[in-house]
Amino acid sequence: MRLLAALATLLFAASFASGALAHAALISVEPANGSTLATAPKVVELRFNEPVTPGAIRLIDGTGRARDETRVSASGDMISIEMPADLPEGTAVVSYRVVSQDGHPIVGSVMFSIGMPSETKPSASTDHWLGALIWLARVGLYLGLFVGVGGVWFARWISWSLTGVTVPRVALAVGLSSAVVSLGALGLDLLGLPLAALATAAPWKVAVATSAGRAFLVAAAAMLFALLALRSAWSSRALAIIAMVGVGLSLAMSGHAATAPPRMMMRPAMFLHGLCVALWIGALAPLAALLSKPMPAALAVVKRFSGIAMPAVGVLALTGLALAIVQVEKAPALVETRYGLILSIKLGLVLMLLALAALNRFRLTPALARDRGAQAILKRSILLESVIALAIFAVVAGWRFTPPPRTIIPETLLAIHIHSDKAMFQVLVSPGKVGKDDFVLQLMTGEGTPLAAKEVTLTLSLPERGIEPMEREALLGPDGYWHVRKVELPFAGRWRVRIEALVSDFEKITLADELEVPPP
Amino acid sequence: MSKRSCLILIAAVAASPVAAHVSLETKQATIGASYKAVFMVPHGCAGSPTLKIRVQIPEGVIAVKPMPKAGWTVDVVEGKYAGEYDYHGNKLSSGVKEVAWSGGKLPDKNYDEFIMQTVLTDKLKANTTLYFPVVQECETGVRRWIEIPIEGAGHSHEGKSPAPGVKLLPKP
Question: Where do the record's region annotations for Disordered lie (chain B) (predicted)?
């Protein structure tokens, strides 16, 4: 028993140890994507909207040769890639794969040219087979967690018998192998490696270091506990409880929803959501099996289940609603984004499932006591529920590939990074076109820590068109960044940008750079 | 604007002895000697009368004694120096870091001077300019004369609100 308690504590600690924010997005590149430089840069810097872990970073030089002598270092939200000294003329491509805090890989590539642009193709890194494998393994994992662990819990706590645990047993086997496959596929995806690389340690090591990888391990542990709960008699009920807690934890540890702010609310919500799915869906297979048995025993079990299913479905709906609102933010995103579409389909299926459940609960269950024919109808209805649940798993597994609308940031066309030994200013201009633009100024010290300022002014001028410096006061936003909204940029051209930050009464840091506003 | 008229304009700006900035009367001083810093305040903040003048004492300037001024209260802020300085056989590691004159009112149409006695230690580098950042607080608004040009950045634009400076000469 002490061992179990220790394991359970470990599960719990592992799941909350990782600090996480959201799905990462690239916000700026230095040198700028698509720029032409006179000399080769020493370093390429990628800046993301949250801290990231570098996965595979590749460089293809102007002659089309892949170069592996780059040195990659990461600090917080920035990844610096040291370029080889002998970078030839032409267009070089840096393709990156990084792991965002929710455990999902972000891929992309940036290009810059030295001297003259040359013809090049960004390396295609879409591995369809790997995507299919990840999706399939995810569905298998859901089967193991919900049908498997949920089924075992039902057998131990509701039906008090091992009738109908064949399906959960198979689901657990599928789920355990899916957890292993998920872990390996995650590692391959992060490093951009072929299937054969599973024989090496690298993908596994990388995968385990991510929150998603740890979630797979917790899920596997939960399923192992469930298998143990099927065997031993004396501690089986405690083991079933631990397995259920593991289901909730593995879902609350990683993924888009669990890592969205406010995490204090989202993680417990995800935990409860997962737990209730297992309670409900796990019961279906054993229930269907029980209904083939003689009446009196089945009736008592169905009644017990009804007692717990009602509150579980209520919690499921409430937590699901809360999670959806945070992730989708605006109703139009339900149809305009892929994430929203998946959610819409899921909601449609859930409504069908709820309708069936209501039918079972309020019509068929009371009918059981009176009518023997009702037993067969109820069984068919439960089987239909199972099919819908499986469809929901298949749909939801697709979320792995879509960022939630919450994290989709509007495309910032222009970003500059001004650097001196005293300070680094990051300037984001959206939409970065002629007309009215919003400026976001992110001030940092030379070491990259946030720089506190009393006042910040933005001065813009376009000498080539005779536009004298125009000065605008920036306002400190709740996000900690300084904002200047609706700045009129009447012409395209090389605008001079000067930012003055008053850091104390007597000290002002001024940095200046140029901003190329493209012609419309 | 033609190139010639541009040049004339630059020359004119450079030649005008009383720019519309807060500046120091004595533009040159020898290190290792005392220096009487006279801050000349030619105007308020965009027409608003001046209520307070704050001067930050740069590192390497010690034994600061502000001159009292009728109608104004003078306050000093003391603190630790970054280094240690010899002063008549004593080692000084702290002293005046900021001087502020307040409580008076200098209308925009008038001119006034704010004076302090200082010692420029010989730890200062000769042939550089020493800057005294000044914050001018007015009835409405603040002017900060705190811009210090970066050494060697000759191409950079002339600041709008330069800090008053004094050219340091080597010990004779």
Answer: 153-172
